[in-house]
């Protein structure tokens, strides 16, 4: 599955308790050959490690162990779920005895660390962090024939087919038809008002989508007249991050549309980074600033973070204190070069967490904080992570 398909509903379903164990596998994919032999070797080693842990875990029932060992933790069956058309630098796999296996293809600039984790829920923090790293956004394409909404992630777009989208105008009669006049007929007086009524309906559906995709920037594409009308009437003008002329984009495939809108998205990203750095600087004088992994970890645990800012390639390992509020950072383990996959997946020392970044992101978002990844080196003095506090 493409990371752009991740929705709050899917996240909630993944977090639903399941019979133990719900297994989460995380592994890097070679960007040059995401699903080639190197990835297969790595996945084979990871599945072997998960099977070993199953055999040694007394809490796993026999029938569940056999189903997972013989059917679900088969690397070839897992890779059969891959969509070669979707880019990936990381794979996240959710496996349980009672559910269909789900494989998520994640484009990410960070190096994934091999993990096989057992719990009574599928772990979603890796997906949440990866999605935020990919700079998600929305694109609304306005057209009198049909208005479409897309969700962008990295350089990919996926059409949203819910919340009333795609939205085709109602056609009460040929004389009142939207879009526009009947072929070879004179334009009728009410046409522009019908278009505005249609755009009001689109705006209502957009509001429903924005509640689900909270906080994402919105880019609006449309012809000059319809774009102007929409911007005049929309209740969501403040979330519009940029606009583009239609120029045939209503017929573009999602991938072509993503390429055409990329410069505008890039400009907005640069503006977001600049604004976040200014906000961090201003927060210092207001005693609402936290900088460095340990200080930020405590602020996140206390649910005091308004905005979390992290470098895109940041990797953190550490030990968490008994009350969950204290973090002692440790050097991140160096990966072992293949072809020794068994050595690659040796677990870290007892009590050491290598998913500190993912935990920071998910815990921040669950408390209502905004999360922004910035280019590496931007927060060098703060150790790669800083936050604006609520108080």
Automatic annotation (TrEMBL):
Pfam families given in the database record: baeRF_family3 (PF18845)
Can you tell which superkingdom this protein's organism belongs to? Bacteria
Q: What is this protein called?
A: Peptide chain release factor subunit 1
